Structure formats: C-alpha cells, structure tokens
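Journal club side-thread
Mid-discussion, someone asked how the predicted structure for our own chain would compare to the paper's figures. Pasting it here so we can look after the session.
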Amino acid sequence: MSELTNTIMGVLEPIGVVVGIILAVPVFWTWFDVVIGGRRRRRRWFREVRAQPGQRPAILIVDLLTGRDIRMGVERFRTAHEALRAIPEERIIVVERSRRLTPEDIRQLAQEVREAAGRLIATGADTVHYFHAGPAAVAAIVGAELANGHRVMVYQHDPDGYHNFGPLRPDP
C-alpha cells in the first residue's frame, strides 16, 4: 500500500504543481487587468475628457411607440451625419417599450431613464443627442433627468426625417 501511495504521490504531485502554475497565470493576469489596467484606463479616460471637452457624444433613444421601431430611422439619420456616425455603439443607449404606456408604468420608466442617464455618465459622454418617440410627459421626465448634467441636443421626427431642434438648455 505504501508503494502505491508513493507512486501516486510521485506522479500526481508534479502534475498538480504544473496544473496549479498554469491556472495561476490567467488568474494573476485577470487580477492585474482589473486592478492595474482599470486604474490606467480610468486615468487615460479622465485625461482625454479634460483635454477634449465636447468630444464624447452619445445617443439616447427613447422609443415608446407600440408596433414601431425608431432605431432604424435613427441609424439612417446617424449614417448621414458625420458627427453622429462616429459615435461608438457603447455610447448608444435605448429605452424602449413593446406595449402601450400606462400611468402605472411611469415610475418604472422613470427609473429606466435614470439608469440610462447613469450609463451615459459612466461612458463619459458630455453631449447627448436625444431621439424621442412617445408621449410628451416622458420627454419631460427625460428632460428633468438630463437637464443638469449633459448638454442635450433634441431631435424631432417629421415625415421627411429628423431635424435638430438645438440644445435642451441654451448654454450660458
């Protein structure tokens, strides 16, 4: 029995050490990327935002129309305009509903708008291009959430496409 134990330990122990070292490499790599790399990315992002204000636009799409998807119309408008075309996907936030909005849904919708505003802040956006399809009451909620933070550009849809109606709040 002792001979079998010694043989197993003689074979399995070195294999266990090799497997442990192999598994330790990705664990250490992930820790390094999360701790050190994340800190480095935040510093680089902060320097970029300070050096180039107005250079990090985002798009907020609020689609509350049932049976209609405005995302494709916004994408067509976006591809036709150079400034909007350059906005990466991670800075495009969509708040949408598939069913008709009721007064009972407003509290949850307001929370979704707050979360969308938080995601916009997290991406470092300093200008928000706002596309809205739905009740005006929801536009007021979105305006209240975004009015004190970002510069918000409002777009209105007409039969011939979207038109920029300018900033939500004029710059002082």
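Post-session note: The mean pLDDT is 83.
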